Amino acid sequence: MKQNQVILNTKPSICSAINMATGESGDPEKVNFDDIKEKARRLWDSSPQPVKRFPWNRALENFVQLTLDLTLAVVKYLSVPVLAVSSLSEMSYCAHQRKLTIIPVPLLLGFVLAGFLKETALELSPLLKDAEVPWHLIAIAIFFTLIKLPGPYYPYWGRIFIPHIANGALFRTLWFMFLWYRRSKISGAELPNSLVNVRDSELE
């Protein structure tokens, strides 16, 4: 009986000790976090006025925009060779399977699908025509890239048709992007000339 009482008496003390240990282990983390916040606030308060007046939000926006521009530039210059190499690999597989003559069918289907999706996007959002970045074309390219990537894991006829459908759509989407950037460059070059002509007419 005495042994049982000793065991029962020691259980609450053990539980309380565990609870105290867990509570004490969590307190330093909270204290450290509060200390970090306090030190950061003091550092900001002690910073000179030029640092406080610096447009940090605008700098962050410019950094994000620069990162996006660099990403788009890399994708723009690497997409054509990567697509060409992958298309040749898929054509070699079709040649090995003696299905090379049916490749034009999925390619034409991909061409048609890309044009249909482009026109549908422009009808749903006419503002895309005057956008600085062709987001609808980028979305179409990402969509068909995701369809193209698991090409080796499709069933037999899927490995033959689906990658070439995606290739046709991607090639036409790249052509649309080329026309888009070419038009933007032409319009950007014509805008200063029009301003000069308006200024000359006002002077006359």
Task: Describe this entry's structure for a reader.
There is one protein chain. With 204 residues, this protein is mainly α. The chain has a domain at 59-190. It is 85% helix and 0% strand. It has six helices and no strands. It has helices at 2-45, 49-53, 56-96, 104-124, 135-148, 156-203. Helix 3 packs across helix 6 (156-203) and helix 4 (104-124) packs across helix 6. The longest helix has 48 residues, at 156-203. 12% of the residues are buried.
Task: Give a quick summary of the entry.
With 204 residues, the protein is mainly α.
Order of helices and strands: HHHHHH
Radius of gyration: 32 Å
Beta strands, count: 0
- From the N-terminal CA to the C-terminal CA, the straight-line distance is 116 Å
Note the beta-strand portion.
under 5%
Number of continuous helical runs: 6
Mean pLDDT: 78
Unreliable segments (pLDDT under 50, ≥5 consecutive)? 1-26
What percentage of residues falls in helices of 4 or more residues? over 70%
In terms of structural class, how would the helical and strand content be classed?
A: mainly alpha
Categorize the overall geometry: elongated
How is the main sheet built?
A: none
Protein name: EMB1273
Keywords: Membrane, Transmembrane, Transmembrane helix
Transmembrane segments: 100-117, 133-149
